[in-house]
Predict the 3D structure of the following.
Amino acid sequence: MSALLEIRHVTKKFGGLTANNDISFDVHDNEILSVIGPNGAGKSTLFKMISSFLPTTSGEVLYKGERISNLKPHVVARKGIVRTFQETTIFKSMTVRESVIVAQHLRAKASLAGYFWGTKTAHDDVDSFGNYADDLIEFLGMSEISNEQASNLPQGNLRALGIAIGLATDPKVLLLDEPFAGMNHDETMKMVDLVRKVRDEREVTVLLVEHDMPAVMRISDRIVVLNFGEMIAEGTPSEIQNNERVIEAYLGSADDEIGI
Amino acid sequence: MLKLSAIQWTGLAVFFLAIFVGVPMMIAATGRTDLFFTLTSVGLLAIASAGVWLTFYIGRINIGQGAFALLGAYVSAILVTKAGMSFWLSLPLAGLFAAFVAVLIGLPILRLRGVYFAMITLVLTQVFTLTALALPITNGAKGITSIPLPGELSILGITLIPDFSTLENPRQAFYFTTAVLMVLTYAALYRIVNSRLGHLCRSMQQNEELASSIGVNISYIRVLIFAISSFFGGIGGAVFGSIAQSVYPSSFQVADSVNFMLNCFLGGLGYVFGPMLGTLVLYFGWDLLFELGKYQMLIYSSLLIFLMLVLPNGLLSLRLPKKGGQDK
């Protein structure tokens, strides 16, 4: 398997605080890779650097050998690396369908002026956006809420809407920001199936940041573990489950102070 | 290209009849030619307000339109008086120059959001006024006076627009010019809002981070919108200067900038035609309260506060179903 995304010695410092220290790993084509770690481990920071929402202090992120760190988010999105957000980040007063249509910006063939004057290319685009949106919404099983305003949707659907918006850009790599946060067991399992389906049927490589352990174990092909900004392990779910350093990070080591 | 319902077509037809036939006939019947001037002012202010409305559409409160109206007025006045250029050519150039300056100013300040952007734009009008006072080309506090009326516009010997100074009633000519410009402005605004650019603006208004994550170059769109907005401001200002035949640093002040913004609020931020209605109501509202003398401002502002409390989505929300666009 070839490396699609390469994270190379990525370091992020906020003043004196090192949020990520020399992180390096590869993301392979068409796999689901999870980055996990306790709160404050630097998962979100790493995630933002991969999507160029934050610049790196040093190190770089490569996509197919090309540097994608320290660019603008829309440039990275244009290359096919698209992130999602947690549920509060949506287009509140758009319907699900409108959101998915506007998110197809990168698929547009006509220019903005073309849309203004209503050229044929623009009309074709508009038709194609509508069809693509309906297909995608059906694929995600959201047809029933297609015309609901986003601000009226319950939490579980918002997460799916976030993924729908991300997928509408037709990405090669989808970065998911805590897709299972705040979900109960059933919702989580549904979301796990959905993410797998997205990977299998739309050939999208998925990189996700999460701390729901059971879900991560179930969904991931490989896992990267961070703790206090350091990468402490990398491997398959079963390797990670038996890794001593990971167990230590999550459960705490034998407490030296009381001398056990 | 246009998909309008029967009611919308009727509304449009009534509107056109009213401004191009109804108003001139009514003025001819009553002999109140001063109304031409009043309505021309309303039209021009509505053009500038349309620009402010557009910046609201990307989630920015713009209290600086007066600056660009002033700029447009000066550019046109200077081109006409010093370079001897035809007013009809100076008009688009005034708009374009305002747009160009808006790009330069917009690049740094459009990064700001909310009250910070509003504060900077509020200062902008004052800065432009002071600049006009200081520069030699604008002739300081004396301003530029005796600007000739718009001359003839002809293409290949065919007269499209006659020389205004030969006309019996130049006010009426200005009225028609303004009416046409206003119709063009709002047609453009309608197209922008209902085409892809408008959709992208809405996405940015609701969440800039999410918009950039789907590949929207948000800084480009912001600057583009601010430039279009200022273009409208420049056009409105240029015609104003031509009607008054003079431009002074105080031609557009901070209070004008605030009014442009109020026009949008009053008409409704969710409706393309909101600023037009807002301008009309605000302009005549102020005049109607003239009888109250020293209490004019007090009553006027109380009424505005009351209206904003009762109708936070503007006057048009009274009768039109809400058509997206505005975040509650």
In short: Chain B has twelve helices and two strands. The interface with chain A takes residues 1, 191-192, 195-197, 199-200, 202-203, 206-207, 209-210, 212-219, 224, 324-328 of chain B (CB under 8 Å).
